[in-house]
Structures are given as C-alpha cells and as structure tokens.
Amino acid sequence: MFRYKRSFILAACSIGAGFCVFAVGAFSDPLPPDTTYRPLPTMPFSDARRIDEAQKPDVMKRQQDLLQRRYDLSDKPMPGAMMSGGMKPVQADIRVRLPAGVTWGELAEMKPAEIKQKNLLPEGFLPLPHVKQATGGQVFPNRQIDEIHAQEMRDLRRFDVDFDLPDNLTPEFPPPIFLTTHPELGDVSRGQLLTIKNFYEIMNGIVTPVQMEGLRLLLTPFPQEEFNQTEDRKVADQSTGVACLDCHSNFHTNAAFHLTPDVRPQADRFRLDSTSLRGLFNQQIHGSKRSLRSVEDFSEFEQRTAYFNGDHVSATRKGANLPDRTNQVAMMAQMQNIIDFPPAPKLDVFGRLDPELATPQELSGERIFMGKGRCADCHVPQTQFMDNDMHDLKLERFYKIGQVFNDFVALPDGPIKTFTLRGIKDSPPYLHDGRLMTLADTVEFFNLVLGVKLNEQEKKDLVAYLVTL
Ligand code: HEC
Ligand code: HEC
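A: This is the predicted complex of the input protein with heme C.
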C-alpha cells in the first residue's frame, strides 16, 4: 500500500528536481508523514494561516478542475419532483461524464477487467477527494455557515478551504423535521434551522424533558480539530467549536463533509459525506465502516475523538467533551431516536407501492428494483430499504488502484454499510463520500457494479421509483 504513494512521489521527482520543488511549493502544506498519530503543530498560528490563505485559490481551483472533469454540475431540476419540504427540486439526469468514445450501454456490456485495462471507468465513479487531503477536517456549506453566524455569531468558515459543490446538488436547507412521536404535526421545524438559540421555543410542548435536554446537548458546540482555541485550528478567531447538528442540520444532512476517521495514513483517508439521522431508530449498525452498535456509542465517540478524526490524543489537547453516559449520552440518543423519515404517501405498510396511487412507470420501477435490478437483495423494503449489513461492492474490479487524485490515494472501499433508501431524494450527493450527484447516477453505478444490464427505459423507471421512497 505504501509503495503506491512512494512510487508516485518518486516518479514525480525523477522528472527533475525542478518539478519536485514546484510540487511542494504549490501546496506547501505537505501530507503528514505516514504515521498513526498526528504530528504536533510546528508553526505559530499567524504563519500557518498566512500560508493556508496563500494556497487557497490554487487548492480550490484544483478541486473545481477535478469536479468539472468528472461531472456536469449544472442546475437541471426533475420536472414535478421536489424534496420533502417542497422548496427544492430534485436534480435530473446522469451527471457523471463518460470517457470519450463509449456509451453507458456499451460500458455495461463490457467485462470489468476490460474496463480496467482500457481505463474506461468514468472518473466520477471513483472515490471523491476532500478539497484538501493534507489537512482534511470538517467543511460546511455556505448556507449553514451563514445561518449559524446570523443566529449564534459563531463562525464555521475556514480560511484554508471552501465547500466545493454547487447549492443545487445539496439537500434543501433548512430541511423539515418529522417526529415519530407526532406524525400528525408533519414538519415541526417551522421552516427554521434548529440552533442553541431557538430550539426551546420551537420544541417546547412537543418533546419530553429528556428529549429537550438531549436536543440542547446536540446543539451545544464543543472544541473540534479545526474549530478550537489553539494554534492548530482552521478558523480565524478562537472558536467554541462545533455542534452535532451543525452537520446533521435539523437531523438531516447538509452535505458537510470530512475525512473518514477509520483509516490511516492521511493520504488514504476517504471523504465522508454527513448522513441523515432520519430513521435512526431502525438501524442496527452505525457509520459506513465503524459498525458501531448503538446510537449511544456513536454519540459518545464522535466527540471523544474531536468528531471524526479518530484521534483521541489530538482531541484531548484541544479540549475534549466526555459526555456522561446516563445523564447526557442517553438523552442525546433518545432525541435522535424520535426523528422519522419524511412521509412516503405511495408506500403501503409493507414498503410496497400502492397500485391505486402509483403511476405505471413507478410500478415498473418497483418491479425492476425487486427483480432484474436486484436492488432489494440489499435494500429490503420491509426493513426501511436497508439490511443492516455491510457489503463490499468491489469497484476495484473496474479501475487500477493507487491512482492519486489531489493527494488522495484511491484504494478499494472495502465493506460499506448499506444506506437506507427511504427519503433518498432528499439526500444528495450519494454514496458514503458523495461521489454521485443524482439518483440517475446511482442507477448507472449499480447497473455497472452489479452487472444487471438494465435497458434505457428500465433505468428511467427505476429513477422514477426511487423518487417515491
Ligand atoms: C463533521 C460533521 C459532523 C458532526 C459535527 C457530527 N456528525 Fe454525526 N456524522 C457525520 C458523518 C460524516 C457521518 C457518517 C459517518 C460514517 O459514515 O462513517 C455521521 C454519522 C452519524 C451517526 C450514524 C448514522 C448512521 O446512519 O450510521 C450518528 C448516530 C451521528 N452521526 C450522530 C452524531 C452526534 C450525536 C454528533 C455530536 C456528538 C454528531 N453526529 C456530530 C458528520 C458529523
Ligand atoms: C450488494 C448489496 C447492494 C445491492 C444489490 C444494491 N445496493 Fe445500493 N447500496 C449498497 C451499499 C453497500 C451502499 C453504500 C455504498 C457506499 O456508500 O459506498 C449503497 C448505496 C446506495 C445508494 C446511495 C445511498 C446514499 O444514502 O447515498 C443508492 C441510491 C442505492 N444504493 C441504490 C441502489 C439501487 C438502485 C440498486 C439496484 C440497481 C442497488 N442500490 C443495489 C448495497 C447494495
């Protein structure tokens, strides 16, 4: 594994010393050494900030170039399909760009080894890098940053990087909130983003005292790897930190991303897209790789390691919060466990489409989902369109591993948890790292990965079905 990176660096350097100097000079925040522990900061804050700010335009341009090469990021709404709050259109069409000279149909007819050998896997199917692999860390979308600043005067804006995807390819904001304890109320958010300032007013009389205390803790900021008071931070002013619901806005996702805590060295850590917390009450395993067995465990450990760096040592230095299992963690979990999926009016109690309500195209999509497409092998309708298992999709059958994208080494994903498909139209971008922008992209992806050879009409019907979930 190390050899991939070493050989890449050696190859780059062997072109000439001049190239090496250029490469290092352009992004002089080098990847940390291939070690488990994060090195201590070596520079005063003002120096680190100056260098980071000078690098930022190049860092962002490099990421935009990669995104433009991989995807069509334009705003193309799907006619008549809105996210659950009714304010934001679901995006249409395949956005992953094909390599020159092949069609999706031709690609699906080829054997994985042939696609790999001819280098024909669309680059957008490969793992998506973080904007800055060397540093990693949490990156929030602008609407989240602006709203938290407006309500709390707390700054989530980093000086070294910006969020990289356009607004049309992220979830609606703020998203609606549905409670298992009050289905009759529908969305209880009143169109607002829940924060430490307004939660009491919005939830008073709707939740129990225990749930209210859990909610308060989920909205309280605590120090984090990039948002803290030390010289090792990526925010201009000393920061009180980050709250759970800064990423899980209104218990949904806002597409904020990070690097996986579960992998080292730094160059191999893949991007991780925030997940929705809707329907958590039915999930038996948590995290795409960690497979933690309870919401309590997850809630406790996220803060223990400064949310997502998998590094309790560095977290301790910056001020870790160790929530008490009985008095705090249990209440945080109880609040999370009453967040429901958005209503799916066309589904019956078995998770099947009601033929009275669904269109012929949606019904056809359901038949493909259960049959030829084999989606229901893992996304089981009776259990909220997941199976509480992890699966290895073995995408590396289709591409040469060890390719480097913006300092990130693309290695096999290995087993990943099956995510639920309930309310899936509300959660772009897709897969654990957000590498796919639309539902149509996910259908092309699984058509290839599973080798199920769906025709053009079947793929369209399947997308129409996914929107009903
Ligand atoms: C950086 C933004 C961020 C913050 C802050 C954050 N999370 Fe998360 N959360 C994520 C991401 C990303 C995942 C997906 C992890 C994975 O797939 O391995 C996740 C996953 C989860 C899950 C598991 C969901 C599932 O379906 O497996 C739970 C539960 C959770 N978070 C709760 C919390 C709690 C409680 C806090 C505060 C202590 C918190 N999160 C803070 C980004 C965040
Ligand atoms: C072998 C099990 C398996 C089968 C079969 C399968 N999936 Fe999945 N699905 C997964 C796993 C595992 C993930 C998470 C992968 C990742 O994040 O890298 C996933 C993720 C997804 C996602 C993205 C979820 C999210 O929250 O981002 C969509 C959409 C999806 N699958 C649709 C389908 C469709 C449509 C089919 C049938 C054509 C299908 N899946 C067949 C296991 C499966």
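Residues 1-26 have pLDDT under 50 and may be disordered. The chain has 15 helices and eight strands.
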